[in-house]
Amino acid sequence: MEEPMYIKIHNQIKRDIENHVYRVGSRIPAERQLALKFGVSRMTLRQAIKTLEDEGILERRLGSGTYVASQKVQEKMSGIMSFTEITHANGQTPSSKLISYHVGKPSLSEKERLKLDDSEEILRMERIRYADDVPICYEVVTIPHRLIQKMSKSDISSHLYQTLAKSGYEVGRVTEHISAAVANENAARLLDARKGEALITRLQVTELTTGEPFEYTRASYIADRFEFTFSK
Q: How far apart are CA 144 and CA 59, in angstroms?
């Protein structure tokens, strides 16, 4: 299956950053210039840029442009609960809405985070997470297709970890990167929020007890609707 054009653009911009064509903290060319360079519509270009923003590689600054993200201070934390567990603990009812569900080739970031071979495919799904029917989080979840190809779409999108456990897999270490951002037009629309509203962004890689990464999640939370509590 051929890579979508926005993934090809995502991969090329990421390579350019790794090769110091665009340096940390520098502004990348305007959308119009990049769309012309790659010979695509601005909508396709924006999809590539949005994916890089979700991964923390680029950051948009209101009224200024899009920049290669600066390295952020990272703090190791433990005792992290899942969205469902936290929602239940708060006496609320969790639910989710599946936006997209697609099997195909991974982006470079997905390939690196999940330690995939060149021939491997991934499942990429987007969903909105709710607490008492209030949209809290927009997330993109990527999973190696070989791990879940015999599982149903409903089981994967609704209760992945329980389904993995039934198939003999055991969840191990979780690595989280938490940072701050603001809602762009797409996030504001999906989460019923205002453009520019404060977000908490989370990049998560979850491993099996064997050390094999099986899930890469990029999530955006509305800051005034959700908080993280950590214990060391």
A: 27
Dihedral angle, C-alpha 50, 55, 56, 61, nearest 10 °: 10
> Cα–Cα distance between 161 and 172 in angstroms, integer?
11
Spatial separation of the C-alpha atoms in residues 208 and 217, rounded to whole Å:
15
Same domain, yes or no, for 203 and 167? yes
| pTM (whole model) above 0.90 | no
- Any idea what the CATH number is for the domain that residue 51 is in? 1.10.10.10
Domain range for 46: 5-68
Q: What is the tens place of the pLDDT at every residue in 53-68? A: 888 889 888 788 999 9
26 in a structural domain: yes
Coil, strand or helix at 215: strand
Each residue's pLDDT tens digit, 96-145: 999 999 999 999 999 999 999 989 999 999 999 999 999 999 999 999 99
